[in-house]
Every structure is written in structure tokens, then in C-alpha cells.
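Lab notebook, bench 4. The sequencing result for the construct came back, and we need a structural model before the next group meeting so we can plan mutations. Quick request posted to the team channel:

Model the 3D structure of this chain.
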Amino acid sequence: MLLLAIHQDWIVAAFAILFLRSAAAKFFGPAEMGLMQGTLSSEQYVRAAGMNQMVMGMFMLFGMGLGAASYRYFGIEGAIIIDGVSFVISGILVLSCRFALEIRLPNGKARLKDIGVRSIFSDFREGFRYIRNHRLLLAILSGYFMFGIIDGVFAILPVFTMKYKLSPQEYETYSPLVMVFLGIGFMIGSALSSAMIKRFSATAVLIAGMFSSGILIVLFSGITSVWLYLILILIVGILVSPINVVLGGWIPELVEPSKMGRVVAWFEPVIMLAQSLTLGLIAIAFPSFVSIGALYIVAGLCLLTASVYYRLVLPRLFRDHHPSAAPSSRSTVEFGA
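Done. Here's the predicted structure in C-alpha cell form:
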């Protein structure tokens, strides 16, 4: 359908199809989290999240180049076909896995006629009530709003930085390198995450990673060298990857299997709301009212604010959720311990 819309220059239809594609893709995250929770033991969550981040780093490292090569040699139609085939292969691989019925359907079988708008909103409200009654989850969700602001800034800021500041004449060459260096950083950070969490505890890794990343992002505002910028992007990738690993390992540990879909369904909308608001404000304010440097400062301050918030609330909430975790069994470094 997307091929037909592009071939006929139906722009509105193309965007509608892309909207549906994006909406369908959002089902993958909650399903993946639920399957991981049902298949692995709690001790394996962090390692699984680390492997997931490493795969993401590989896609960031090679995906941009493969996408550009597909577009160059096969055109937009060929790139879309390859994208569609990749979805089909992914579905076949998931279908080939064998999961127990209670893992696939933690709430039991449901009939299609029972799935309506009212039931969807009911599940959505139930997910929010569950988050509200679990203060650690609520604190994590609050921080995700800040993550959405940062995602919105970085969705376009690297390209803006290359085009309007660092390399106006060669920004098309350097812009893809941002994802390459970030992907390398993700892979390195993923490889180090498990050892860091064992050594310093999950809360310490999360808070320190957010605080350090926030400082580096603020420093981006004054950089004038392309290669220094790329090196710092790599370092940010190393620091951010353990953050994602910690959060990815925490969620299946904190949420009951029967509530996983309802809870995880709240994280993406919160991020997308913050990201959309940020992109809208950037479209209005840049470059008339704010500069590229100011945008980096805003993103860095948001991350620093989230790290301070987490520093104040997470250690206590984590201890409340794990009352049996004795200090002697923890690492030598524990924020708030």
C-alpha cells in the first residue's frame, strides 16, 4: 500500500500508512517485555536488556549505511520492499519460538468481540492506577517525560549542528556518522553494563549515567570541532546504554505479568508526548528565538534535572521495594545508601 501511495504521489495516504505502520510497531515493545519476563529469571533481566541494547547499537552502526545503500542502488521502492521483508522475517522468527500458553496469554484467552474502545480505555486506566499505586514505577514514568524532551531535541539537533554550525558544506557526509559513533558507544556501554551494575548497583549506574550524560550534552553547546563532537557522541552512547539496561531490567522485575502490557503501554505515550511538544517548540522557536547551543543546554539541564530527581527518590523507593537487600550484599557504592 505504501508503494502504491508513493508511486501515485498520494502524500496524505503515504503519511496515513506510515502512521499505521508506526502504530502497529508499538505493539512489539510490551509483547517483548512480557515474553522476556515469562521466559527468563529475574537474575537474567539485566543481561537480556544488555544484549538488547547491543543489538540496537549494531542496528545504529550498520542500519544507516544499509538504508543509504538500499536507497542508492534500489531506489525508494526497493528500500520500502526491503523494510517490509524485514518485518515479515521478524514475524516468522517470533512465530517460530515456542512459549507456554500462560506466558503468551497471562490474562487468559480473549475474544475479538470483547476488544473495543471501552475495554481499551479501561485497560489504559487500570495501567495508570497500577503505576500510581507503585511509587517506584511512578518515579520512573515521571523521568520518562524528561527522556522524551531529550529525544525530541536529539531527533533533529545533530543534523542542525552539522548543517548550521560545524560543517555546512559537508553536513550530508558527517550527519550519518553521528548514528555510527552513537551505535559504537551503545555497543561498548552494553558490554560494560552488567559488570557496572554488579559493581556499583543499578541505582548508582542509572543516576551517575544520567548526570554525566547531562553534563556532556551541555558541553555540546560550545563545541566547534566535528571530530570532537563525534567523540563526545560516542562517550554519551557509552553512558546512556547502561541507563537503558537498568530501566529495561527493572520493568519486568517490578510489574506483575498480568499487568505488563497495561503498564508498558504508558511509557511510550509519555515519551512521545514530550517529544512532540519539544519538536513543536523547536519548530516555532528555532532559529528566531533560540540557538543550537541553547537547545543543547535545555536537553542537558533536563537530563540533569531527571538525575537529581532520581537521586532524591529512587534509592529510598528501591530499598522499600527490596527490603531483604542487606547492605553487605550490595556493592561498595550505593547512592543514598
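Residues 324-337 have pLDDT under 50 and may be disordered.
Will bring this to the meeting.
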